[in-house]
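User: structure tokens for this one?
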Amino acid sequence: MTSARTMDHVFTPSADPNWVISEAGYDCLLEISRGVRFAISNGFLGVRGARAIHRGGRWVATSRTLVAGLFDTADEEEAIPGLVATPDWLQIHILLDGEPPVHRPGDGKSQRRILDMHRGAVITERRLSNASDVGVLIRSLHLACLNQHATALQLIQLENTRGEGEVQIALNASFEGLDIGLLPDRMEQGFGLWHVLGSGKRLAMAAELSLRVDGQKVSPMISGPFKWAWSWKSKPGQVACLERLVTVARGDTDDADPGSDARDALAAAQRLGWSGVVAAHEAAWASRWDCSAVEVEGDPAAQQALRFALYHLNGAANPDDERVSIAARALTGDDYHGHVFWDTEIYLLPFYILTWPEAARALLMYRFNTLDGARAKAAGLGWRGALYAWESADTGAETCPSRALGPDRKVIDVNCGLQEQHISADVAYAVWQYWQATCDEVFLRDAGAEILLETARFWSSRAQPEADGQCHIRGVIGPDEYHESIDDNAFTNVMARWNIRRALDVAALLLARWPERWESLSSRLGLGNAELEQWRSVAETIATGLDPGTGLFEQFAGFFTLEDIDLANYAGRSVPLDVVLGRERTQASQVVKQADVVALLALLPDEFPRDSGEKNFDYYAPRCGHGSSLSRAMHGLVAARLGDTDAALDFFREVSAIDLDDSQAAVEGGVHIAGLGGIWLMAVFGFAGLSLHSDYLAVDPRLPATWRSLSFGVQWRSRSLKIRIGRTTGSLEATLETGEPMKFVICGEPFTLSRAEKLSVRMKSNDT
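Assistant:
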């Protein structure tokens, strides 16, 4: 039997303040952004953490549930696919003696909301009363199960704190705002089945509710599908406990049966009961934290920022679904329509590869499953191979809009879908990183090799030989999106060369180790030795923009001749630089929107020999206006590697503030998941100096002065290891928890790491 005593513990958040994000009171100006910050997700269901308890329907609902992969296209000119809004299953309406209850005037602490990141749950507490002075304390918890992705749970406890009166509670799933073609097929009590008008996909939802007052179950007054209502006489000390289980399923094909899937998931959850659901969910989160936690001593703000980042990263992926990827705002908001960008491969995949390889594999399989869409895009533009969509939904077709409103509210052409082509090399980069870290032979043979070969084929057709003896890639947009239709962007060309060379490596590997697979794949792709030789020629002759004399990469052809603007004169601005300068002057200047050459330095540091890395960073960092949330993380990573930990820590704090600082309005559209991935990158690849090599891992730490220690875990080729870097002691400890002995390089010195004993090394330099 459910009782207040057995339910009390779920409303108690983690004791460590760095595990929780909390806020008291209510600010209507910040409610949407805070709802995003308090979002929960399990990679399939994303629920914005807005207030679900409404006083007699007077408040406008701001909660929202998104389902990964549930796309539709609106019936309008030049419409693009977007995630479909689904029924809001969290809403609760309450009346006391028929009146909407209110908060006591001036009592800002009468309501509280907590994101418990350790447990993956949102907890709320509210004290309400009516004109007759009937008072209630309402506590709630909701979560999206990390172990069973179809299942969500809401628990509510209502305690009468004073006065006698009638309590009325009504619960319903709101269908308001479902304006992108979600149409009902079946509606029953506790069950619904809908189809998406354009794509034909289907959505099913099943629900089970139970109310107990002082431990006794109370039957509802049912008023219709997905609607429940209860009414009872309440007296001081009385406690009512409400349990709501909801399951959701998506059907992508005609033979799928999401209705049965949702009902089966509900039946499984009912067998566990709410306490079993909570326990399994918390165990799943404990396992994820064990694999992915990053611990910082000496900097509580950095520790909380890391936990916030890791909470959203762990909640954004679903290793069980290879048909979806992670959107630019994950499942926490509607910006960018749920589309997938290069963010996933460059800013997110490193985290999953080294802490959750199963999730990384699923994300890369999404790219394999959309490879035909990439081939079609390349062919449509007159090239061979695979050109991935700059913005991708479920099919791999290009979903980038062709027009948008500029910062000055004028309609402008958007060329990214046609010209921002480095995406194909970015996907290839992630494939190779995964292969290097996991040695997943099945993935490489069945999917990864084909991605590498088809993206290399694209670059080898895209880079054209010219009279100067070099191959050029003209008319592109690099990561710096302030400059369009440029030639020989250094990031694009060097990444393309790297892509081609890795494809040649994988071709040789397949031929040597799996000749039958190579024969089958090369035959299907029509890939022969003559074409491979042409690839080598392109890789050897592609223009990179590197000046051997200075060691500087020219960001693109002609960049050094543009107007050089001192950005220090525009410090303290509150709008992007292209708004301040105007679009035309920005394009005619060396002002960079976001890391471009610096991003290349972060991804391929070996392309910058000797001190050229520092020279390029010193040149480009002062010219970057950081007009994208992606930018500062790359600068912070590189600054840390170069030893400028003060600058790196400043970048770290600026990235952390994007989603945690209440002054940022941009968070209303969802958390900046790439920035959150960048926080992990700065800590692990930057301050810890972790790097991946062909047969070993290496670290070269550079910790900030305020960090006494940094600890984290990684997975490497079926091994799990934990690393602790002590700045104050100048020591590094590494423990191999599972797997065979491995080579581990610390500050350039090789060691053998085995399970036999912990490796403890006194580092030569105290730069840590």
